[in-house]
């Protein structure tokens, strides 16, 4: 695999890092280093760590056209387990990439297909299909938008949906030649577990993206930032992140209420699953057409207002994306310092104290014990501090980083979602010209104005959903982070007293 | 000034350090960087910081023979103020060097003389003068050694001598062309202050070294590790270190009781000072002859026992010297990390939180205030932590480093002192051969055996003095250090709660 460098990165010398320049192409040596780092090699043969955010990983073995992918349970042979999990995030120069899949065991494969960065070949869906289309009669799947205290909001269910992803189990097929992991997913509505493999989650993601992507940013599945080197750790980490992804989907009133999502959570047997799948794959109300199911109970918005709101959301998500990446970046650096140089330095201080204690013990002078005990205790305390400092990131930074990573992924989807709206605004602005050219009627122009207003209500509802989730998530993560930090300083301080008590 | 590299040092990249190899010669750019670092430039023109312990600084302008230096108050012109303070420490590859002296003001000088590393030209005093000399009749200045619980000990005074060095005042002479600093020294015996310039301390050091150096390690004056860049800071630092040096001398029963030390502390007028000085400079009982004044009330020691003890002390002081230097080294590195990269990193984390808070503030969503306040508070707390972390070394490491620096200086004197004993053992071991060759009589041989036993009691008394002081000093410094460390973690933890209280 190779990667395109998307930002300049200057290596901190002595930290096994690699300086790279924007536009450079590097070879990926190890994508599973962890902590948000990738080991890469440049054209001069130098190798070292580069933050994964700075690289756009792609497959450089051979390039094939992107073929839409289906989850066909009867044709597992074509999509080899090790390669069917790759997913792109898109957005602001996001990292995309392949990664080692579920089956790292004795799975052998005779051929492989490579799923490429989808967004490299796709374009933002054309909103014209909705703006000018003759709409089908209103069906039952209407998406309601109400005016809440904060403005337009989706209709939220009385009791929120939730689910638990647990109990990963290894399965195999084709006489043990192919192995996979199956997760148990239990929704709080039925309380009845259903089993899903990663590829089913992936299929769900594809459906949600296709159906709602123009109106709702659908975050990609967590499959890139894999920090576990070993299979068990990997499975655990993936499960935790699938849980996080499912939670976020459950919390979304539109997504959680959709047929395809309900199917995924509540199918009762293989037959129901297969039938539901076929129906979902044949759904024609996808892409910008999803707006045709939206009914805002509010007056039509002026195009200028629409544009302003769109601009505001675009700017906010871009700026938040920058802020989140900045935090992830310093977080990564701090993580590395704590587990690397700082740990070693405290160890050295500890050793220096203990060495001095050993030397003092050889003095042959009486009445030395109190001092040498104290020096040894201080030395050991420093070695403990070294441990505590090195382990601390896993306790506090981890959750902060995971949440921000999740938001990085989510924010990476906004440009595409907002892009549909911007393209629609463009189209509506051309309305007069199009009428003059005889391409559309005056009535069409009126329809477009009405529909872009509907789109804008949808975007506002989605932004309000995003904001309320964001406030909830960041409140929670900051509280946990600060509590852990306090606990950290208390632990170290406590450790010190152990060293001091002997005085 | 240039410097010889005495140990390999690998620069930590990105920290403005310079990699140097043992034996290399570098140019000293700035000796007053502080924190135990010297800014140096290698022959390839690269420059950076090197720990001062790794360099042996010398003057490379021109080399003159070492001329014994006298403190002649009437001849200030010859020893220019800016250059008369340099002193060497000797010992295990000690840093020696010149430094900017007291008068950094408007002092101009037309010529300068350079005092060189004395030990580069001196040899260890020949103990033969004592071992074989016909001794003068026993005078009144006898040095008593008793058998204490820990073995041979010096006779300690009932109430220990102490003094306060304070109130540095700038004086000038030669119509203001030359300026100097005068310190007030007040002993607890007379409680009457006397005034001394640095050069007088230096004169005292020279006398003590000359008189007692063979039996007692006399630490050099604190004039090398000058961390203050500004005159006031420099004067304050020098005063504190002169105070430390005087305290150590006061605590020594032999030194504190000597005529020359008493003269320094208690002279009543210029005449008494000058008369006393002349007498001290004419003292003939110096070097190894000091052993002739020692009266141990104990049975004669076997040469094998003498040699074993000498070896033990030699090994102990060498190993402690290594341990102390190791601690100073990691201490320096830690100091630099706290005030450098760590400070910056906490600042960046603080800024990242605050940036995110600013972005969130632009959301236009209501009910954001609690979160943005908390993020801002967390960000500010991190900036405070950055400050606390950067200032911490001055609070705790400082005293630990100062004490260890003092011991580094003291331990650096042991090789010379122990060297006299080793040379004497060598001489006594040759006794039979010398008798056979007719160089000495059998009676002489007996005298030598008796005298080396006396020397050994003296060395034991001195080692016991060293050990008891060492235990006292290190107990004290460790306690203070750990207390400050606890206070540090409590402060940071307290700071956190400020950030958290808003939740």
TrEMBL record, chains A, B:
Signal peptide: none
GO cellular component, one term: cytoplasmic vesicle membrane
A molecular function GO annotation: phosphatidylinositol binding
Disordered: annotated span: 71-105
Binding site for a 1,2-diacyl-sn-glycero-3-phospho-(1D-myo-inositol-4,5-bisphosphate): 197, 199, 238
Alphabetized Pfam families for the sequence: BAR_3_WASP_bdg, PX, SH3_1
Chain ranges of the SH3 domain: 1-60
Residue ranges of every copy of the PX domain listed in the record: 161-271
SMART domains given in the database record: PX, SH3
GO BP annotations, alphabetical order: cleavage furrow formation; endocytosis; endosomal transport; intracellular protein transport; mitotic cytokinesis; plasma membrane tubulation
Biased composition (Acidic residues): 72-84
CDD domains in the record: PX_SNX9
Alphabetic keyword roster: Cytoplasmic vesicle, Membrane, Protein transport, SH3 domain, Transport
PROSITE patterns xrefs: PX (PS50195), SH3 (PS50002)
Membrane topology: Peripheral membrane protein
UniProt keyword annotation of Transmembrane helix present: no
SUPFAM superfamilies for the chain: PX domain, SH3-domain
Localization: Cytoplasmic vesicle membrane
Family from the record: Belongs to the sorting nexin family.
Identification of the protein by name: Sorting nexin 9a
